[in-house]
TrEMBL record:
GO cellular component: membrane
Alphabetical UniProt keywords: Leucine-rich repeat, Membrane, Repeat, Transmembrane, Transmembrane helix
SUPFAM superfamilies assigned to the protein according to its UniProt record, in alphabetical order: RNI-like (SSF52047)
Localization (cell): Membrane
Protein name: L domain-like protein
Secretion signal, residue range per the UniProt entry: none
Amino acid sequence: MAPTTTRDAVEAPKIEIGLAIILGKNYFQHAEDIGEGNDSEIDEFMLETRQSAFHWIVNQDPMQLEFDAPNLVQRFLLVLFYYQTTRHQQWKECNPPATPQGSASIKFCYKPDIVTGESTSDSGVISGSLPVMNASGLGGESAQWTSPTRDHSVAHLNRLDLHGNMLSVMLPPKLLSFSLESLHWGNNQLTGPFPARWFESLHGGTTIPSDVGMPPLKTLRLGNNSLTGSLPLEMFQLSALGFLAFDQNDLTGTLPSEIGLLTHLFYISLKHTGIAGTLPSEIGLATQLLEFDASYSNMEGRIPEELYAKLTDLVAFMGNDCNFSGTISSSLGRLTGLQWLGLANNNFDGTIPNEIESLTDLRRLEVNGNQFTGTVPVSVCKNLAYFTGDVAVVADCLPNPGTGVPTIECGDDCCTSCCDNTGVCLAD
C-alpha cells in the first residue's frame, strides 16, 4: 500500500505490523481467511475494504492511534465493519452522544437498507466508550469518529446491540476477540450455518496482548434470524457466557453435553428451533441456571435427575410443546425457587408428585396435553393464593368427549384453566 501522507509514510508500516500481529501477516494481501469459498469478487471486495479501513485508521482517524495502542485492532475492525456494510450506499444517519461525557449508551448510525424510514426504536444502541461516526460517514470535512473520551485505555467497545436492523451481514469474526462482553444481533436477517467462525476466533484463534485486559463474552443474543445447522462446540468453550438466546432460528442437532462447561450460564433459550435429542445430564453442572426455555423445539426424553438435584436456583423451566416424556421426579421439591413450570403438550405420564408443595414461589403450572393421572396437589392452589397478577394452573381437568371423565382431577376450583384430551381448554 503506497503512502499518501506523512503519517502514512512514517506510521503506516508500524501500524500494519501492529495489526498483522493479531490478524495475520498476510491480512492485507490475501483473503483466504474470509471463508466465502472461491468467489473472487467477494475476495476482491473484502481486500479492498480492509485496505480502505487501514488508510482511514492511519490518515483520517482523529484519535491517531499508535501501532501499540491497546484498542487499535478493535477500532480497525469497527471501521472495517462500516466499509463492509456500505458496499452500495452510505449509512443514512447517526446520532453522536448528546449525553454527558462518559455516557454508557449512545445511538448507532443507520443505513437506508437497514432501517427504512425514520426509526424511533432503540435498535442500534451501542454502549461503552464506543466511537461513532458523524452523519457524513467516513468521508468529507466533518467526518470523524467521536467518543465520550479520547483516553485510549477506556475507548473499547463493551456492548454491541444491532438488533432489529434487517442486517444480513456478519461481524468480522476477530472483532469478538476484543472487549465485547455483550452482542445482540437478534431480529435481523442472518441466514445459513451458525457462525462457528465467531467462536473459533474467540477461543484460542486470536492472541490478545496481555496488557489489554479484555473481558470475556458474557451475553450472546442471536434470536429471530434464519440461522441453520447445529450449535458449534467452540461456543461452549467460552466459560464466561451467562446469557444465550437462539430462539426462532432454524437450528438443528442437539444440545451437547458441553453445556455443562458453562458454569456461569443463567439463561438459555432454544424456543422455536429444531434442536432435538434429550436434555443432557450435564445440564446439572450449570448450577447458576435460572431460566431454561426449550418451548416449541424438538427436544425429547426424560428430564434428567441432575436438573432437579443441582439446579436449585432455577426460576423457570419452559418445555411446552416438545416431545419430553416419562414421569416427574419427586426431586422436583428441591427446586424451591421455581416460579414457572411449563410442561404442556408433551408425553409425560404418572402423577404430579406431592413434593411440588415445596415450591412456594410457583405461580404458573402448565401440565395440560399429557397423560398425567390422579389429582393436581391442592398445595399448589394454596400457594397460588398468595400471589396476584399472572398466575395460572392449567391441567387436563375438563371432561373428555365420550367418557365424560377428565384425565386428571383438580379440586376446589384449583385450576385456572381445564383442558380435555382433544386440546380444548376452558378458563375456570
